[in-house]
Amino acid sequence: MQAFVIGNVTVDETIAIDDWPKPGASILGAQTARDLGGKGCNQAIVMARCGVPTTLVAAIGEDFRAATIRDVLGHEPVACHLIQIDGRASDFSTILTTPDGENAIVTTTDCANHLSAAEAHAGLNEAAAGDLAILQGNLGKGTTTIALQTAREKGMVTAFNPSPLRPYFGQLWPLIDIAFVNQGEARALTGADEAEAARRLLAQGVRSVVVTLGANGALLVDADGAVHIPGVACNVIDTTGAGDTFMAVALASAVLRATALDRRAISDAGAAAAITVGRRGTHSAFPSAGELQAILAAG
Ligand code: ATP
Asked: What's the pTM value of the predicted model, to 2 decimals?
């Protein structure tokens, strides 16, 4: 079993500021972190560190950030199918943080928007029936749809994280086996609270829905009913990447035991996400391969 993550990769620059700038202002800040990010990249790295053979299919630009992306990914156990988009800058995020813990994030999507449907299709060339296709909301409608259709034609299991939210997601649910949504996404997508939101996604063809509830854990809803798995108490430093850690570990826990998503997968995911929440940054906050394998072995 292999996993193919078709998504985005960014370089995240975090800048600490004393207060939010007014329009037109120039202010001073201090860089506190430079880290790899992007939901696709995050999920692929965590999945690979869990011990699942994983390929990341993503677009990068023709610039200095592309070299950083290749270098950092070169030290991860993930196989990379990076498509260089000529003349474009790699996607990046500027994360502004204030002393009271608030943050604001601006992310460019030039490369993610230019990952073509043909390239996403080609990225699944090596995939076989039973492999996992994992997508998020950063790619365009045509590319996301073709990637999911290709995965279905190959008999792969499809997992989708509809973040960031886009208007076209409503047409995708019949192509999706497993969906991971947070509380805000659940409400925005269906107009309902978590359990009812999950049931509405099941009615559109999804087999398992996980609604993550921040510190309150997560709800797993499938044809057998709904199970709530409480969160793991931890010292919260920075929640960036918690959702990506959670999704990757839940899927890895299930596939490594050759089972459908179950209570243990969700509780393994919560234990791993609590580690991410307890550290600053994105890539630098993820649990190590050793930490992940200890969680997965303990059950
Ligand atoms: P993010 O955008 O911050 O990556 P998200 O909005 O996609 O996350 P959340 O529901 O906030 O998703 O968090 C995902 C999972 O991370 C939760 O189900 C939980 O297991 C863990 N988590 C998040 N916040 C906390 C917290 N404060 N304490 C413990 N666990 C947490």
From this structure: 0.95
